User: What shape does this take?
Amino acid sequence: MKFYFPKILLVLILTTVLTASEKPNVLFIVVDDLNDWIGSMGGHPQSKTPYMDALAQRGTLFTNAHCQAPICGPSRASFLSGLYPHQTGFYNQPSSSNILEEDTQFFNGHLIPQYFEKHGYQTMAVGKVTHGIRYEKIFQLVGPHGNSGPKPKGPKKPNDFRFHHRPDYSLPYSGTQTDWGVFPETNTEMPDYQSADWAIPVLQQEYDQPFFLAVGFRRPHVPFYVPQEWFDLHPLEQVQVPEIPDYDLNDVPATGRHVHEVPRYPQLPWLRANDDEELKLCIQAYLACTSFVDAQIGRVLDALKKSPHSENTIVVLFSDHGYHLGEKARVSKHGLWEEATRVPMVITTPGSKSGQVCSKPTGLIDLYPTLLELCGLPARDENAGLSLAALLNDPVGTPWRHSILTTYAKGNNTLRSDRFRYIQYEDESEELYDHATDPYEWHNLASSAAHMDVIAEFRGHLPKQEVPYHPNVGSSPVNAWFAEHYKRHGVGRN
Ligand SMILES: [Ca+2]
Ligand SMILES: [Ca+2]
Assistant: This one.
């Protein structure tokens, strides 16, 4: 015992030193409002995203990954904290810019960059990463956060701007920044270009510690403005519109239709007039914005490749939620159907197997525990998601969860399994879609006798307890609609 003790100590010390110096860096790329319209996911046949596709080819693409809330604020609060909205009460956008800081129970000190900092990482961020927290509070080094982009000034170009500069601007919709057009003139005016510019030299530097660098991109979030060259990649006369059957919403429960009508986005009859004139322009602009942001991601990945860190950096790329561009008769996020919840999610690790595809139900909530495991940091008991590390080794054979949860306004939940999507609204009305036969979710099977067992199993996976709205989060207009509805009709649940 006497003889071996110092030897064991030496081994322990050596192991610790080696582990610290070998810890991988993390490049955490967050895209805003990007749906499955990237080449490798096949969401739209005309998407052009060579850099994201190449990244997916180098690592593992999760093709059945979903956000935990289909809008920016609660989705980001969830993946940064590793908790579901029904655990924190963050069901909606935060009502001020520093609210997460005030909540020490769920957020302050526990967000993913703070955890990495606590365990010896240098943490850095640029662009839109958080929504409702001051970056300086949770990252050690911060670049410009940017805004939604330069605002059109000077002489108007009425043909380029569909809403904001039209005399009838207020007619088609209200309450969102939805607009599209060619603007500004150069890429360098775009905040996303500037974010990449900030990240590129940061990646080239040597560091004493491993780093956690978050790079957030604002496009393709509205307004769908990018310079001309990105529109030229997607000629208008070739733009394909998703199929939108007239009957589709007939089998959606009334509550479901109301949930998806708030807030008001551009309305379909207006978009589809004159042979889909406005919808085609809108889709062209979204494709253009996606190609633009793909190129900025490419610039950052290229800088990593040429840096001293290329062989020792985990890259995670994902979007905070999806977006409908006509599917289910809507152009918006704020929803519980596939296009609003499904997100691109790619992970590459040093020496990882390339070209893997995983179709297990996964979520952004899984990123926090995954990165802890991949970086050898202590697991955090509070994390509600699952580490994806086993799926990176065996994306097909690993036993996995039944389904992944997305919540939009308290009490409105959807679960996505390998095969089905189940939705339950706050009045307990339901939808069920079979992706094996109905990939566009056109045929609601909630009242199908043949699917009663499937539905019963999904009900068992809904959240057992849903905490009230966090005091710093405005309650959703969806719930306000229900409150009014219940008052009038005397129905509903508490
Ligand atoms: Ca977003
Ligand atoms: Ca339908």
